[in-house]
């Protein structure tokens, strides 16, 4: 699967640009089983990035529909990643910080219970737009300290209403979003959930408890573990010495599929992840460097991604837009 990749090449109003369409068209020919879009805003004030893709308006549907059609024509499944920046929304871009706690953003009050419910409903409405546009499903962004991850964190969530306090309450927003999408879009619409387990005050044992419930209830179709390094070892606590991946692949998953991202740049590493309990592997940077990474792996079991960093000209020659390349230049380990 292709991981959701921020690329900052949409129009300023969130509409899919010709650059978005060409990026998806290239990927659609690469033999991915499922392709996710970049993080798409579920509300106008949810923005975290310049030129971020949007799905908060019906006006976004025509452009999204062309993206979905490209993936379908290439033979893969498609998903829109649903995103809200929460307290990290950027006012200079029109974002409105929406913190779980009053102490997170100086001078900004915590969301009221009613405002939390409005954001929940915005996720659900965005999923309906994705279905209308012809996508096979959505991926709910619950990683990297964005709003759903923020609510999970006892460091960032000191609420005393039904969305704060206990582990169950802090997970409530995520579960209500997922359940609401299922009710609105039906049993055949795929729901993925992207989860990160590091930083932002997240607690590994709590996340394992939440994942166990979600998998047991089969609330989602797939779990996308967004690890910085898929081979990393837990350094402390009750899971010390285990791989981070095994903490979650050991959980009974019923019909849910589980996969991971994190420095997967070779055919060998992709195969190892399957051996370590994953049902699928998510490709990020390797897909930027080589749009048809799955096809390369299928052709050569010894395939390795180009060494990093690469030149801007290498990306340009591969068909990446100048907007995407300029964004990549901010990652010095990627482009020079």
Automatic annotation (TrEMBL):
Keywords, comma-separated and alphabetical: Flavoprotein, Oxidoreductase
Pfam families: Oxidored_FMN
GO molecular function: FMN binding; oxidoreductase activity
Chain ranges of the NADH:flavin oxidoreductase/NADH oxidase N-terminal domain: 2-298
Name of the protein this chain belongs to: NADH:flavin oxidoreductase
Native source organism of the sequence: Streptomyces corchorusii (Streptomyces chibaensis)
Classification lineage: Bacteria, Bacillati, Actinomycetota, Actinomycetes, Kitasatosporales
């Amino acid at each position: 699967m292709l991981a959701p990749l921020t690329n900052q090449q949409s129009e300023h109003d969130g509409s899919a640009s010709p650059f978005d369409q060409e990026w998806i068209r290239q990927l659609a020919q690469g033999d991915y089983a499922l392709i996710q879009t970049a993080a798409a805003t579920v509300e106008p004030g949810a923005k975290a990035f310049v030129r971020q893709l949007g799905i908060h308006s019906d006006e976004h549907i025509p452009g999204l529909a062309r993206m979905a059609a490209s993936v379908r024509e290439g033979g893969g499944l498609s998903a829109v990643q649903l995103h809200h920046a929460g307290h990290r929304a950027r006012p200079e871009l029109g974002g409105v910080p929406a913190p779980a706690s009053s102490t997170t953003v100086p001078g900004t009050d915590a969301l009221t219970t009613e405002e939390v419910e409005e954001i929940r409903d915005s996720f659900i409405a965005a999923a309906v737009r994705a279905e209308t546009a012809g996508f096979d499903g959505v991926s709910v962004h619950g990683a990297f300290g964005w709003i759903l991850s923020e609510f999970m964190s006892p460091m960032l969530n000191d609420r005393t209403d039904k969305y704060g306090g206990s582990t169950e309450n802090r997970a409530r927003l995520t579960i209500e979003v997922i359940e609401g999408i299922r009710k609105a879009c039906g049993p055949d619409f795929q729901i993925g959930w992207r989860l990160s387990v590091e930083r932002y005050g997240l607690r590994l044992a709590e996340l394992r408890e939440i994942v166990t419930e979600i998998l047991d209830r089969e609330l989602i179709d797939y779990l996308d573990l967004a690890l910085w390094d898929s081979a990393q070892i837990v350094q402390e606590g009750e899971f010390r010495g285990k791989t981070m991946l095994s903490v979650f692949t050991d959980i009974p998953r019923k019909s849910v599929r589980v996969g991971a991202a994190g420095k997967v740049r070779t055919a060998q590493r992709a195969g190892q992840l399957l051996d370590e309990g994953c049902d699928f592997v998510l490709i990020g940077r390797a897909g930027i460097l080589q749009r048809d990474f799955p096809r390369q792996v299928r052709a050569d079991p010894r395939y390795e991604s180009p060494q990093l960093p690469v030149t801007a000209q290498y990306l340009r020659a591969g068909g990446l837009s100048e907007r995407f390349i300029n964004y990549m230049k901010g990652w010095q380990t990627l482009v020079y």
